[in-house]
Amino acid sequence: xxxxxxxxxxxxxxxxxxxxxxxxxxxxxxxxxxxxxxxxxxxxxxxxxxxxxxxxxxxxxxxxxxxxxxxxxxxxxxxxxxxxxxxxxxxxxxxxxxxxxxxxxxxxxxxxxxxxxxxxxxxxxxxxxxxxxxxxxxxxxxxxxxxxxxxxxxxxxxxxxxxxxxxxxxxxxxxxxxxxxxxxxxxxxxxxxxxxxxxxxxxxxxxxxxxxxxxxxxxxxxxxxxxxxxxxxxxxxxxxxxxxxxxxxxxxxxxxxxxxxxxxxxxxxxxxxxxxxxxxxxxx
Length: 284
Hints:
Helices cover about 65% and strands about 5% of the residues. It has a three-stranded antiparallel beta sheet with strand order 4-3-5. Strands 1-2 form a two-stranded antiparallel ribbon. It is mostly helical.
């Protein structure tokens, strides 16, 4: 079996197992499990490193989503048991990366892509975009899930005024530190898997870690700014929870109802992916 054939076989088997497990544990609904299977297969078949980034994001985010469920249930009006995600959320967090992964595979002839000095500048740019994409998604998820459990009072990023927990665009120091850690984990994952699948020379590849850390924080901040401005937040006087839609019993806290949470995530991912791609083009 050729290296590509082996990767395809491993990717299909592993992706199917993970999708079934996620469905049983209610991390994904049926539609999300199907889309997730396709997305994971694409990533793993193109590069084990790309697959590792997706899997680390998925598993760590799912774990943190389930952390402190009782407290989150009392705060989050849209709380779902197990943090179950649908197909829209899966595509919002992996659609752009999947397109970039396929493009990288096409450019490299489906060989393992690297950041070596001899590599194509466009491939390096795309690799940076993929890493930035998952650093952003991971950073946003970690900051939200950990920040919600923080004892400190969140503040709206645009005004720094204290707001209720669960308000879109609210930040805490704990949440920002979590975003930095999340980005760092993505960079570290790419680097460690690369030692087994790539050809690293010198210390330059270590720069992936700080760049990923910055992408995690940048993505989280962009998400917060968008959440505070173009995503509606209000407090329901009956349920005593923050909600994302207007209503007769809802008092506005911040933002306008221009984008929903998926839209905000998509825009922040696009911006972070682009910025990180440019950084990798110049650094590597």
